[in-house]
Write a structure and sequence with these properties.
This protein has 185 residues and is mainly beta. The protein has one helix and 13 strands; from the N terminus they run αβββββββββββββ.
Length: 185
Amino acid sequence: MPRTSWTRRTLAALAAGALLPLGAVACTTGHARGGTVSPSPVGKVLDDTDDSGRHLREVDKKNAPEVGVEVTPDSGGGWDVRLTFRRFRCSAPGAGSTAVGGRGLVYLFVDGRRITRLRTPAYHLPDGLVPHGTHHVTARLYADDGTVWAVHGKPVQSTADITVSGAETSPAEPSAGAATPFDGT
């Protein structure tokens, strides 16, 4: 009997030793549970932050995401904000917290104050958020890990100016080059 027990243990150890390297190879294929591909790190996280304290994720201009913003008055009141994207898609709710190239969400700011987080290219801005005067509506792109997409150390964003007057509202033209990274204004 002792010999049979020893033989079984030896065979089990040999089998484990043979399968262990195969398990290590499977871990390096880039596949995660559920058959999805694990993203590799994208860009370089900088020490610099945007004005809300989020670190910048530097990517080269050639592959950088872009956003354009257009704001028009809504006949029912408020403003309609429309975003256009190049090399960018909004992540679905519940997306993982890993940066994936060209994906993430959009934060919408009015005069530097964050209004909302968007996962769609459209938003209705209520009248109450833009009192009389000229205002800057900025759409800034973020990766799913909370970092800000950036090119040359500047957040990827676009700004449109709107002017709210007495009885009527008039949109200003979207910022020049609305679909390119901007200098933070």
